[in-house]
Amino acid sequence: MPRMHQELITERKEAILADSRAGMSRAAVAERHGVSIAYVSTLAKAHGLSARKVKWPVDEVVKAYLAGTPVRQIAEEANVDLKAVYTILHKANIPLRRG
Prior knowledge:
Helix 1 runs antiparallel to helix 2. The chain folds into two domains: 3-46; 58-91. Helices cover 65% and strands 0% of the residues. The chain is built from six helices and no strands.
């Protein structure tokens, strides 16, 4: 494999690991780097990083949603994926906005 290609792969792996170490969810890391969640998980495990337990900021998510903040923005600010926001809202019995 050409050296330049190998260096790019190494840089990409290091960036993925850095985001994982910074506390980003594996789904968020995968989306940011254009790889699968399985790849991020495999790479993280190979480097001794365990799956993190996400403590979602439930009160903050609900408050922001009820104030009219878009779900995508809430997810970005809370550092969780969209599914996590919808799960929080569902568990809090918050009716979803339409449109």
